[in-house]
Design brief:
Blueprint (H helix, E strand, L loop, with lengths): L17 H12 L8 E3 L14 E3 L8 H12 L2
Length: about 80
Protein backbone atom coordinates (compact mmCIF):
# COMPACT_ATOMS: atom_id res chain seq x y z
CA UNK A 1 0.00 0.00 0.00
CA UNK A 2 1.31 3.41 -0.93
CA UNK A 3 -1.07 5.52 1.10
CA UNK A 4 -4.55 6.18 2.30
CA UNK A 5 -6.83 9.18 2.56
CA UNK A 6 -7.41 10.71 5.98
CA UNK A 7 -10.94 9.36 6.14
CA UNK A 8 -11.99 12.05 8.57
CA UNK A 9 -15.24 13.76 7.73
CA UNK A 10 -15.65 17.37 8.72
CA UNK A 11 -12.16 18.47 7.71
CA UNK A 12 -11.63 21.94 6.25
CA UNK A 13 -12.24 20.54 2.80
CA UNK A 14 -15.49 18.74 2.15
CA UNK A 15 -15.91 16.14 -0.55
CA UNK A 16 -19.24 15.13 -2.06
CA UNK A 17 -18.04 11.57 -2.64
CA UNK A 18 -15.34 9.22 -1.46
CA UNK A 19 -14.02 9.20 -5.02
CA UNK A 20 -13.38 12.95 -4.89
CA UNK A 21 -11.38 12.51 -1.70
CA UNK A 22 -9.34 9.76 -3.37
CA UNK A 23 -8.84 11.85 -6.52
CA UNK A 24 -7.48 14.72 -4.43
CA UNK A 25 -5.06 12.33 -2.71
CA UNK A 26 -3.85 11.07 -6.09
CA UNK A 27 -3.37 14.62 -7.37
CA UNK A 28 -1.41 15.60 -4.26
CA UNK A 29 0.68 12.44 -3.83
CA UNK A 30 0.95 10.24 -6.93
CA UNK A 31 3.91 10.64 -9.27
CA UNK A 32 3.32 10.21 -13.01
CA UNK A 33 3.16 7.66 -14.48
CA UNK A 34 1.27 5.68 -11.91
CA UNK A 35 -1.19 2.82 -11.62
CA UNK A 36 -3.72 2.62 -8.87
CA UNK A 37 -6.48 0.52 -7.48
CA UNK A 38 -9.04 1.62 -4.93
CA UNK A 39 -9.91 -0.95 -2.29
CA UNK A 40 -12.79 0.31 -0.20
CA UNK A 41 -15.96 -0.79 1.53
CA UNK A 42 -17.89 1.99 -0.23
CA UNK A 43 -19.60 1.02 -3.49
CA UNK A 44 -18.63 2.40 -6.89
CA UNK A 45 -21.49 4.89 -6.54
CA UNK A 46 -18.90 6.86 -4.55
CA UNK A 47 -16.34 6.72 -7.40
CA UNK A 48 -15.25 9.85 -9.22
CA UNK A 49 -15.43 9.86 -13.00
CA UNK A 50 -12.96 7.36 -14.44
CA UNK A 51 -12.36 5.48 -11.19
CA UNK A 52 -15.06 2.84 -11.60
CA UNK A 53 -12.86 0.30 -13.38
CA UNK A 54 -10.20 0.60 -10.66
CA UNK A 55 -12.57 0.37 -7.68
CA UNK A 56 -12.84 -2.86 -5.71
CA UNK A 57 -15.60 -2.93 -3.14
CA UNK A 58 -14.76 -5.20 -0.23
CA UNK A 59 -17.02 -6.57 2.47
CA UNK A 60 -16.74 -4.21 5.48
CA UNK A 61 -17.13 -7.12 7.91
CA UNK A 62 -14.75 -9.65 6.31
CA UNK A 63 -12.25 -7.39 4.55
CA UNK A 64 -10.44 -8.19 1.34
CA UNK A 65 -11.05 -11.62 -0.15
CA UNK A 66 -8.70 -13.69 -2.31
CA UNK A 67 -10.87 -12.76 -5.32
CA UNK A 68 -10.52 -9.05 -4.43
CA UNK A 69 -6.74 -9.41 -4.06
CA UNK A 70 -6.43 -11.18 -7.40
CA UNK A 71 -8.48 -8.45 -9.11
CA UNK A 72 -6.27 -5.75 -7.56
CA UNK A 73 -3.12 -7.52 -8.76
CA UNK A 74 -4.63 -7.90 -12.24
CA UNK A 75 -5.44 -4.17 -12.39
CA UNK A 76 -1.99 -3.14 -11.20
CA UNK A 77 -0.28 -5.39 -13.76
CA UNK A 78 -2.23 -4.03 -16.74
CA UNK A 79 -0.17 -2.20 -19.32
Amino acid sequence: MIGCTPGEWGDEETFDTRGQEIQRWLEDNAVEPYRFVIIDDFSTIEAASGQEDFWITVNPHCGISKKDANRAIQLLNQQ
